[in-house]
Amino acid sequence: MKRFFGQRQGDNIIFEGSEFTHIARVLRMKEGERVIASLNDENDYYCSLTEIGKARAVARIEKVEFCKALPKHNIVLFQAMPKREYFESIVTKAVELGASKVVPFKCEWSVNHDYKSERITQIVQTACKQCERSRLIEVSPVLSFENMLNMLKGFDIIIFAYEKENKSLDQKLLEKKENIAVIVGCEAGFTPEEAEKIISNGGVSISLGNRILRCDTAALATLAVVNILSKN
Question: What domain count does the chain have?
Fold first, then answer.
């Protein structure tokens, strides 16, 4: 069944905007067809379409189940701001690999721009539908490097992907860790001073292998390793 994000009204789910367009204009769905509705909470709502109007579709809730695709741990990706197309790819993969939040930040060698919030919101929603997550992840405003460091307080562990490290991530480091921070650089990486500040603020530097990875590949690789080893 196809998944769509909507709003609940009593025993019904209302689909409007781009979600209605996808239902009515793109897929040309008919009344009586079944869909899964997401309300940005922990549940999947199994519904049947009862009305497809000119600007909205209505579905009646038949069954509610806990969404099995929701991550078990709080994994936050701190990503030094890269080129726009790389950032969009990183956000997509962060959703698929179980991140709870993406925090972009500026550093000495990062790209000096913000992102288009409407575009990123649509990317997050599409990615959640693709991997069957019922709750949207948050993408924060772009922070300064110092503000990023301040946000690291309170995490159980801080994983720092660093090209000058030679130790890989040990599964024992992630045992009984519920709140996990992951830090990945931009295309040019970090200055030695920035790397030292991350480590002095609790970052555990790890290697991703003998090859230097592009930043979007590095984010994907780090999240994939953390996701698997933490059994997220």
Answer: 2
